[in-house]
Amino acid sequence: MSLWNWLSGVLNYLGLWKSASKLLCFRGLDNTGKTTLLHVLKDDRLCQHPPTVHPAKVEFTMGGISYTTYDLPSLGHLIAHRIWIDYFPAVDAIVFLIDVSDRDRFEESREELDSLLAVEQIAMAPILVLGNKIDKPGAASEEEIRHVLGLHGQTTGKGNIPLKDLQRRPVELFMCSVLKREGYGEGFQWLTQYLS
Ligand SMILES: Nc1nc2c(ncn2[C@@H]2O[C@H](COP(=O)(O)OP(=O)(O)OP(=O)(O)O)[C@@H](O)[C@H]2O)c(=O)[nH]1
Ligand SMILES: [Mg+2]
Q: Based on the structure, what is the number of domains in the chain?
């Protein structure tokens, strides 16, 4: 944890720090683990959720930063786009989930990611891609997911790389298991450096 994260976390705890909430756009096909992850982040609770039917606003705090997002039903990307479109100009970052064990839907996932990458209003918003469910037998490797999502040459590195050095939209893939509570923390830590 960086000194800045630690300090803002302490100030936040004491109620002395009121940073504006960051708006996150959570996307990915149905059954990829969006609701499960949101509830782990919000309440630190891992439980089974039925497929999301009703949109819900979800707020949580991590590393001293407040986040707001919407858990939306997966209605196909065109409809999801339409729901998000009012928010797009204000979106601070995108979190995109893929189920790395569901090979039959890799192509569909890629189409969804490509359509998201093409949205002009958010052309500079950082994208955290989470390859979820690495705990499942037969899960694809990080290399394979980079390939199926067409991320080769598109990602910008996992380290601390200032935006001015990137000169482009930050994009990176982190493999994770929400079930085992592994991997997504590093992803969010990477993302925070681009949330000024
Ligand atoms: N093995 C494994 N299963 C997971 C993991 N994360 C989520 N799941 C399971 O995947 C299923 C779908 O999870 P949800 O969180 O409901 O997925 P969703 O993306 O919100 O799905 P929709 O609401 O239909 O869009 C559930 O049975 C979860 O328990 C993981 O890391 N590993
Ligand atoms: Mg859901």
A: 1
Q: How far is the CA of 132 from the centre of ligand 2 (A)?
A: 14
Beta bridge partners of 183: none
Return the ligand number nearest the Cα of 34: 1
Q: Which residues pair with 28 in a beta bridge?
A: 97
Range of the domain at 124: 24-54+75-192
Assign residue 155 the CATH number of its domain. Answer: 3.40.50.300
pLDDT digits (tens, 9 = 90+) for 141-188: 999 999 999 999 999 999 999 999 998 999 999 999 999 999 999 999
Is residue 139 included in any domain, yes or no?
Answer: yes
67 inside domain: no
Ligand 1 lined by 179 (C-beta under 6 Å)? yes
Asked if residue 133 has its Cβ within 6 Å of ligand 1, the reply is yes
The DSSP secondary-structure symbol of 177 reads B
Q: Is residue 4 part of a domain?
A: no
pLDDT single digits (tens) 95-140: 999 999 999 999 999 999 999 999 999 999 999 999 999 999 999 9
pTM attached to this predicted model: 0.90
Could you tell me the CA-to-CA distances from 142 to 24, 132, 134 in Å, in that order?
Answer: 24, 10, 9
Integer Cα distance of 192 and 188 in angstroms: 6
Q: How many C-beta neighbours within 10 Å does residue 5 have?
A: 15
- Cα separation, 34 vs 37, in Å, equals 5
13 is a domain residue:
no
